[in-house]
Design a protein that fits this description.
Blueprint: H1 7-19, E1 23-27, H2 33-39, E2 48-53, H3 57-62, H4 68-73, H5 79-92, E3 97-103, E4 117-123, E5 130-135, H6 140-162
Parallel strand pairs: 1-2, 1-3
Antiparallel strand pairs: 3-4, 4-5
Helix pairs in contact: 1-6
Protein name: Competence-damage inducible protein
Pfam families: CinA
Domain CinA C-terminal: 8-157
């Protein structure tokens, strides 16, 4: 079976390669889909450092370095959590850019957040972490794919906006 490459992943790999920047991710609801999307593109090894699958809340703290205080006060699905996931991915994987993805893919509401609520954090060098709250619709798989696509687009948009 031939893999269909995501146009957003192809564009992200090309953009990062041109700018000589590396990327890593800490993924909760996407459970590795973001990194897998990038890794499917030829040439990804020049820019993709790696990723952390932190589906369980305790792993967000232990592997990605999300503070226990943030997890207790804000919860695993929160703006601050996404920001700390992005910074943790960047730090742990020694990448220029870190991406954090956390949210609710379903089937039920989590921590007061309805299904489809997703927070995406992007940590760039010498810039504050940018976090976007998204609300997606569809199946679990649809929500997870939309999360990956939004994160890829967000990385490219921020690189352009901030002039990297």
């Amino acid at each position: 079976m031939e893999t269909v490459l995501s146009p957003l992943a192809v564009a992200t790999i090309a953009d990062l390669s041109k700018r000589r920047l590396t990327i890593a991710a800490a993924e909760s609801l996407t459970a590795g889909m973001f990194c897998a999307s990038l890794a499917s593109v030829p040439g990804a090894s020049a820019v993709l450092r790696g990723g952390l699958v932190v589906y369980a809340t305790d792993l967000k703290h232990r592997l990605a370095g999300v503070s226990a205080a943030t997890l207790q006060k804000m919860g695993p699905v929160a703006e601050d959590t996404a920001a700390e996931l992005a910074e943790g991915a960047r730090r742990t994987c020694q990448a220029d850019i870190g991406v954090g993805l956390t949210g609710v893919a379903g089937p039920a509401t989590q921590g007061g957040h309805p299904v489809g609520t997703v927070f995406i954090g992007v940590a760039l060098p010498q810039a504050p972490v940018n976090v976007r709250e998204c609300h997606f619709r569809g199946s679990r798989q649809d929500i997870r794919q939309q999360s990956v696509d939004s994160a890829l687009g967000m990385v490219c948009d921020l690189l352009d906006q901030l002039g990297y």
